[in-house]
Design the sequence.
């Protein structure tokens, strides 16, 4: 993030103080996503955008319009994404950016909440017979520019008195391509991205992710910090997907739960006994629409990243708090 970009956020903040009103008038919510990231945001063989981050954009559309078709995704390279948000090219970044102190303070950004918990890892060729990051002394490492990965590598290797040479590229795919071409001994990124983008290597089975996770990488939607009303909406749409899983509400049973559940929290959540949507500028059935049209957090994770997907990630830290994970929603009351 440059000083110029921070100033740009400040100068444009007042002009976009009513994001929800802009979205409703436009009849489209626009989300900035990372480029070609299988499992998170990618274009399938039918030309349709899919993925965990894309589904969150669809959840916003469901909450606002009761219709997932009014979600529009725009691909943004990491170095350009903040400027695209600052200039109102998108309403929210559902990107792969880590929630960090410097990004959250004084840069015109607001991280609404971590939606996915990741950590930085390293991929190497099996033929190199490397079993640990600590065996990468003197290695050349490929990474994307404009991310936290460069700094994490510097910290980790300096602390262990290991030498290395980092080679950076404009984007994760160019970094992966360079690694695949043999220009680097290792490729570093968030473990989720290594698992997903690693499928694009020429021979994925010839590579492995080393066991160490050298950083914590909480990732979630980002908005301009000039519009707290919009930030609240984005945050609680995210919480709604989590609360639905906590309450056992799925896209399959949500109609039955709405019609017959006697659980007071379920009835409030689905707009049966209360109208929580009015405080967000939404309809009474906003949460029902999210679950009905997109699903709960577990459904979204499973179909894009979990066992039901080609990625095959375990829930791990992205499990519900009651199952030992970090994913939790505040009470809906």
Sequence:
């Amino acid at each position: 993030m440059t000083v110029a970009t921070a100033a740009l956020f400040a100068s444009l903040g007042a002009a976009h103080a009513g994001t929800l009103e802009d979205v409703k008038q436009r009849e489209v919510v626009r989300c900035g996503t990372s480029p070609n990231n299988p499992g998170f945001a990618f274009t399938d063989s039918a030309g349709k955008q899919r993925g965990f981050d894309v589904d969150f954009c669809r959840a916003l559309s469901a909450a606002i319009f009761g219709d997932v078709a009014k979600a529009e995704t725009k691909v943004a390279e990491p170095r350009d994404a903040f400027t695209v948000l600052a200039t109102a090219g998108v309403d929210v970044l559902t990107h792969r950016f880590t929630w960090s102190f410097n990004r959250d303070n004084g840069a015109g950004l607001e991280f609404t909440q971590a939606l996915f918990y990741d950590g930085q890892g390293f991929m190497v060729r099996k033929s190199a017979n490397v079993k640990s990051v600590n065996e990468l002394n003197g290695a050349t490492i490929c990474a994307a520019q404009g991310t936290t990965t460069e700094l994490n590598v510097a910290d980790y290797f300096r602390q262990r008195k290991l030498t290395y040479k980092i080679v950076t590229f404009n984007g994760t795919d160019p970094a992966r391509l360079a690694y695949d071409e043999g220009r680097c001994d290792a490729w570093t990124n968030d473990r989720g991205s290594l698992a997903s983008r690693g499928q694009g290597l020429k021979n994925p089975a010839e590579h492995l992710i080393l066991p160490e996770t050298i950083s914590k990488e909480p990732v979630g939607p980002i908005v301009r910090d000039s519009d707290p009303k919009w930030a609240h909406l984005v945050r609680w749409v995210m919480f709604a997907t989590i609360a639905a899983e906590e309450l056992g509400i799925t896209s399959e049973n949500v109609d039955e739960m709405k019609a017959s559940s006697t659980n007071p929290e379920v009835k409030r959540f689905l707009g049966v006994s209360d109208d929580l949507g009015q405080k967000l500028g939404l309809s009474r059935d906003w949460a029902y629409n999210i679950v009905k049209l997109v699903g709960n957090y577990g459904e979204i994770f499973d179909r894009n990243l979990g066992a039901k997907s080609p990625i095959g990630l375990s829930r791990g830290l992205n499990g519900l708090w009651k199952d030992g994970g970090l994913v939790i929603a505040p009470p809906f009351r």
Observations:
- The two ends are 38 Å apart (CA to CA).
- The first strand starts at residue 29 and ends at 33.
